[in-house]
From TrEMBL:
Pfam families, per database record: AAA_23
GO cellular component terms given for this protein: membrane
Domain HAMP: 177-227
Protein's name in the database: HAMP domain-containing protein
Transmembrane segments: none
Gene3D superfamilies: P-loop containing nucleotide triphosphate hydrolases (3.40.50.300)
GO biological process: double-strand break repair; signal transduction
Record GO terms (molecular function): ATP hydrolysis activity
Native source species: Frigoriglobus tundricola
Residues in the signal sequence: none
Amino acid sequence: MIPRRIELTNFLSFGERQCFEFTDDEAVWVLCGANGVGKSAVFDAITFALFGHHRGGGQNADQLIRHGANSFLVAVEFEFNQCVYQVERGRDRRAPVQRVRRSMTGGWQDIDLSPFRSRDRIREWAEQTLGLGFEAFTASVMLRQGDADRIITATPRERLDFLRQIIGAERYERLHGRAHSAARRLRAQLEALAADRDRIPEVTPDQLAEVAAALQLAADRLNAASANREAAVARVEQARQWNTLDHAG
């Protein structure tokens, strides 16, 4: 994931719309300034836009609104897997604002979030698209201040969960599950076919010989019938010719 642009409006210490652009002409970007100017708020905007989480947790988004304002908005534009996305999250006077768009030729196209059924559809979309949840994202991709060693100090179970998300193990586990189900289904079909085969009575050599003799007898009779038919056809043709000559005389 490569951040490209972050816009903040009435978000934490930011008032009127502020824009941070991270262009490709620099290899490294640094946010610097005195304490309290809002450096951490830029990173809070990323996690809040994607996962609905910030330093204060995932609840009470009202505390993110700048004092004196009644609405706020964050917009995060980033590149991932050769696609550029823009995620907007905030609240206006009437309702929450949630939108995800993808850069297409000629402009932006909204991504349909209706297939996602959780209460936070953007978070579900981000987890599916990035392959990481909030915990794994902040432990591996965006290391928060004072939390850079989180993946090291985590419990073995937590570390395993982080690594599973980072390498996308869930996708392989789902594939393994489907392969296991298919193998079990095919094994059951094979066992059923084997049982059907076992129920078929065994054919003895004498029975095979009897069938072969019957087939040969039928073939001989067919040949004889064919010969008789050809002889009958010849006699009919001969009678027709004699009848024609008789009328001519």
